């Protein structure tokens, strides 16, 4: 039972889905943070979900069925390099498209850029150490909500921050329970994602 729960949490909050959830936070949880017109938010969110979730997922499916990777869990450190690199290319293309063609909001562009930067950094670190991609993504989401809570403080934002922190804890615990990572790899992943994103969002919103 606990193993199924841990797998479920890992799947629901997989790294590919976190960028879309971060954009949901910007558009619908803290709508005053962006200048994106309300009428355009849904179409932009769908475009981001398509580019950062569906397309990379299809790429991973192709690698799995062509035996480029042995499992979607990517338990082997070296096996992670090609998928991470491929997804990083997709994310770079998405961030570049939004910057050059749809540069309508600085915070949105920053979010896509930082997600891409974190993935590139994660890929480089993976050459030497298998840190948690799940927690890298969660660290970025926590950092975004933390800075937004400081900028747009309210009781609902405080509870939303607590909820995201709790989800991050559940994801980290699930990765440990499944023996996907050691504690140091989970902490390092979270630290990487949090540090990069917190610095970027703090510089834009609070500096």
Structure explained in plain terms:
The chain starts with a helix and ends with a helix. It has 207 residues and is mainly alpha-helical. The radius of gyration is 17 Å and the shape is globular. The relative contact order is 0.15. The mean pLDDT is 91. The chain is 76% helix and 0% strand. The chain has helices at residues 2-12, 18-29, 38-65, 81-101, 106-126, 133-151, 155-177, 183-205. Helix 6 runs parallel beside helix 8 (183-205). The protein is built from 8 helices and no strands.
Could you give the order of the helices and strands? HHHHHHHH
- Give the oligomeric state: single chain
The counted number of beta strands is 0
Task: Indicate the proportion of strand residues.
Answer: under 5%
| N→C terminal distance | 46 Å
Q: Count of helical segments?
A: 8
- Which spans of ≥5 residues are poorly predicted at pLDDT below 50? none
Derived structural class:
mainly alpha
Please tell me what the overall shape is.
globular
Average predicted local confidence, pLDDT: 91
Radius of gyration: 17 Å
Helix share, percent: over 70%
Q: Major sheet: size, sense and barrel closure?
A: none
What are the key terms here?
207 residues, mainly alpha, globular
Blueprint (SSEs and pairs):
Elements: H1 2-12, H2 18-29, H3 38-65, H4 81-101, H5 106-126, H6 133-151, H7 155-177, H8 183-205
Helix pairs in contact: 1-7, 2-3, 2-5, 2-6, 3-4, 4-5, 5-6, 5-8, 6-7, 6-8
Provide a compact summary of the structure.
The protein has 207 residues and is mainly alpha-helical. It has eight helices and no strands.
